[in-house]
Amino acid sequence: MARRSDHSREQIKQMALLAGENIVAEYGSTALTARRLASHIGYTVGSLYLVFENLDDVTLQVNARTLDKLSFELDQVVAKQAEPNQCISQLGRAYIQFASNNSHLWNMVFEHRQNENENIPEWYQERINSLFERVELQFGKLIPGQSAQQNALAARALWSGVHGNCVLALTGKLDVVGVENVEKTSDLLIDNFLAGWVSTHQ
Amino acid sequence: MARRSDHSREQIKQMALLAGENIVAEYGSTALTARRLASHIGYTVGSLYLVFENLDDVTLQVNARTLDKLSFELDQVVAKQAEPNQCISQLGRAYIQFASNNSHLWNMVFEHRQNENENIPEWYQERINSLFERVELQFGKLIPGQSAQQNALAARALWSGVHGNCVLALTGKLDVVGVENVEKTSDLLIDNFLAGWVSTHQ
DNA sequence: ACCTGAACACCGTTCAAGT
DNA sequence: ACCTGAACACCGTTCAAGT
Fold first, then answer.
1. B64-201 sits in which CATH class?
2. Between chains, do A128 and B186 touch, taking CB under 8 Å as contact?
3. A156 vs B120, B171, B174: nearest CB
4. Which of A15, A92, A165, B102 could staple B160 via S-S, CB 3.0–4.6 A?
5. In angstroms, what separates the C-alpha of A158 from chain B's closest C-alpha?
6. Which B residues 34-93 touch A at CB under 8 Å?
7. Minimal CA–CA distance to B168: which of B157, B159, B176, B156?
8. Which sign, positive or negative, has the C-alpha torsion A68, A72, A78, A84?
9. Average pLDDT over residues B3-14
10. Does the pTM of the predicted model rise above 0.85?
């Protein structure tokens, strides 16, 4: 057992988040229990409640890390693609790849249902918005002169759509198997949406 | 306490499913526990395991009812709309309305993650497919002569998209509030997809 | 001051025992 | 034959007590 002052509060927090990430990545979100987490970092359950509000807080913070990793991946794509049409397509591919490569962690992000009486924390909402911004930016390039609001709406419409393809496919509900098939429906969605968008907006 | 032969196995099952539906509708999926369910129908926990495999089985069967209710709503829409373009739009609206009016039940359908070692039961998958079929049918009308496979793909691409808009919006992740705004992004998705689809396929 | 670990009020699931 | 309810192995969360 770790004893007083072996680690700072911040160190314990980071250890716990890393352990949480590993547990979820390997065994899925249901394996993320207080007792397991505590034993992984060499402390007892009680200590977790000194650094986190509760387990939901841990979940949210592990999810934040997952969203950060996803943002990083998407940025790599944006850096490589100049043409907005192509870029949006590649962002879709990257999203699906990420979801499929990190299925347990990615699942936890979208499994999580906020308690009805409390709202999503602001810092968490901002991380989600920042993901959408990467797509909005491409819509801005696609047809210059559109209002920011219209681009935001289009990005949300299309990107939620890609997300929907991803969830249903990866949870087996689309009755298609393998990443290739999600890519197929997602590409179809993106290509047709963009074709429609371009033809009606210029 | 109910005693022997008060109800048949089938009656107990139906009572439990109805009680489960009410519990979830009112208090959300986390409230669906074996003890609560048992006490609602006047039996003890043990009895539940005589008529269901486990709690997951109960969840799946309550979900099946929810999917049936959704199918019914969608059929009403199809019956009223002759023009496929309009019909697909109205199906989207009906989907969002259903999700928003039955948020707890609808949430449970998509919260549920199948155990990794066992697949979705066939009877359950068929219910999902039957939902997609309603959209496929409209794609068949939209541009006659397309292969069934292409219509199935298009229906899955677009409908998963509408679903994605719905989940993200209703779980507060889209940063938009109210049903009106989901309808806005969903309409946008449908309209542009269809415009793209029609323009590239004739 | 920091951390423990027992306690509380819950879970899902099983199965010997009662009627 | 049908159903119970105690038992088992878990949960999340709290907080008096120990070092």
1. mainly alpha
2. no
3. B174
4. A165
5. 6
6. none
7. B176
8. negative
9. 85
10. yes
